[in-house]
Amino acid sequence: MGRYVVRRLLQAIPVLLGTTFLIFAIVYALPGDPLQALAGDRRVDPVFAATMREMFHLNDPLIVRYGYYIRDIFTGDFGMTFRGLPVSTIFEGKFQVTLNLALMALIIEAVVGIGLGLIAALRRGRWSDTGILAITLILVSIPTLVSGFVLQLVLGVQLKTSTGIDFFPVAGIAEGWRSYLIPGAVLAGTSIAYLTRLTRTSLMETLRADYVRTAIAKGMPRRRVLGRHALRNSLIPLVTYLGADLGTLMGGAVITETIFNLPGIGQQLFQSVYLRENSVVVGIVTVLVLIYVLANLIVDLLYAVLDPRIRYE
Amino acid sequence: MSNSTITASPPKHAKSGKGKKPASLWSDAWYDLRHSKVFLFGAALALLLVIVAAFPSLFSPLDAFDKSTCDLARARDGLDATHWFGSDNLGCDTYSRVIYGARVSIIVGIVATLVTSLVGGFLGLLAGFYGRWTDVLLSRVAEIFFAIPSILGALLILAVVGRDNAGIGSVVLALSVLAWPLVLRIMRAAVITTKSQDFVLAARALGAGPIRIMIRHILPNALAPVIVVTTMNLGVFIAAEAGLSFLGVGIQSPDISWGLMIADARNRFLEAPAPLLFPALFLSITVLAFVMLGDAVRDALDPKLR
């Protein structure tokens, strides 16, 4: 176990370095002078240009600049924008919004997905099972782009005008946790479908296992068989799926944040891409990739803890 | 996970071989597919959409690219007999734009799927077959690309590379660059399990060279999981294209894309929902068609789920 943890940690390092370098290279390896681009058509003052080049290491080859960048990240310094603002101040508060959104999505996903999956598995072959499978098919097919706008229209506007219920805010984050309800549900949409199917398959597999049959044969009440034997074992793949999904949800929040006007990291990224603030763009994507890789790493380790049958040698 | 798992009747295709030759995985799968309602419905829908994409003028009397058909006085008007889906912010007919918008979605979906399965499949075959350092190298490179969340990565690539040459090509490139590692992984795993089977050893003992073994013996037996993922990816790519175009980094304005239409209609969405809802509806239907295809293909090709 200990050796597995160490090996898995060591394996993550080249992936992290490779991925961050890839992002760095995509953004910075372009031909053209960034200072000239900043100045537009005007002539760049040579003294100013020299200072800036020195400051941003623009004279060094790409790999050296990447080295500087990684060194600075370790001290929490994500560099400066060309306008002189530290990138980390732009991050402030934004990651919290995206994390809140992703966590809300994760909660909705877990409750709805596992719930529907349980019903489907326990009523295998009956109409409720068929119905739930049909629902997952439709959930997978509706992109966030569509579900976002439709829910905004139905719950935010029509529900309010027709019944006066104003429980679901559909823009901004002024209403605390309630602001994240609808965006969270939208972001969770596709994942709910996958989790439902995973729960269904996983539980159906466990219900067929010998130890479940033994428990039933020795006269254990059905509810207890389900709770103590079947559920606990079929939860393992679900927990790991949910863990890995947190990174995916955070990375996929751009469209949801744009629709619901949430001032999160996705929306910041979108703006920075437009304003060509490359240092912000690289910073955001780097952090999200870090979260994604680390979430997967933790899940892998968690799996080893949760399921002692698996040997990693 | 649709029909075949719901109906509890396992021996449905066992006698499909007609006595002559034992049924192969492919003829079994084809038998399953022909009898799957999900597949037939999905295939019919997908076929219709491909026809719409290829010949939009058959379905729409107006040419959506002809701006003279737009009438600003009609901007955001509701639905009527000549403008079935109403008009958008510029007074252009939403129905004809929705019909003409199918082409981009279908092309992006199919081309990106082809590129990723060819590149990922080929590299996966090499990695799985040769193993050792080829495998280590290819798998590590794939892992690096795999770690970038796809919408973010595509946004990044399009923002930087595609800014001056935005269009279908850039979108396909951005989506493919991030999606091939998944195909590589699956192909590699399938090749590794196939490689150690007796018939491969027999072929090798008979003196077959590596190329022949790869193409004649391993590839046909390792192809099924790749086809499953490939079909499923089609819908994912189509949704991703719409998302990127919505964000403004995908397809650009004289071209028509559902994502772009949604972005255009967004500001006036609450007072005039039609120009947004109809492209959204068609987008969902298109994704649904390919998701259903993928589901049915998976059920047919993955015997473990039976």
Automatic annotation (TrEMBL), chain A:
InterPro entries listed in its UniProt record: BPD_transp_1_N, MetI-like, MetI-like_sf
Pfam families assigned to the protein according to its UniProt record, in alphabetical order: BPD_transp_1, BPD_transp_1_N
Location in the cell: Cell membrane
Segments passing through the bilayer: 12-30, 101-122, 134-157, 177-195, 238-260, 280-306
Lineage top rank: taxon: Bacteria
Topology in membrane: Multi-pass membrane protein
CC per GO annotation: plasma membrane
Residues in ABC transmembrane type-1 domain copies: 95-303
GO biological process: transmembrane transport
Family: Belongs to the binding-protein-dependent transport system permease family.
The name this protein goes by in its record: ABC transporter permease
TrEMBL record, chain B:
Origin superkingdom: Bacteria
Pfam families, A to Z: BPD_transp_1, OppC_N
Ranges of compositional bias, category Basic residues: 12-21
Keyword list, A-Z: Cell membrane, Membrane, Transmembrane, Transmembrane helix, Transport
Region (Disordered): 1-23
Mode of membrane association: Multi-pass membrane protein
Name of the featured protein: Peptide ABC transporter permease
Species this chain originates from: Acrocarpospora phusangensis
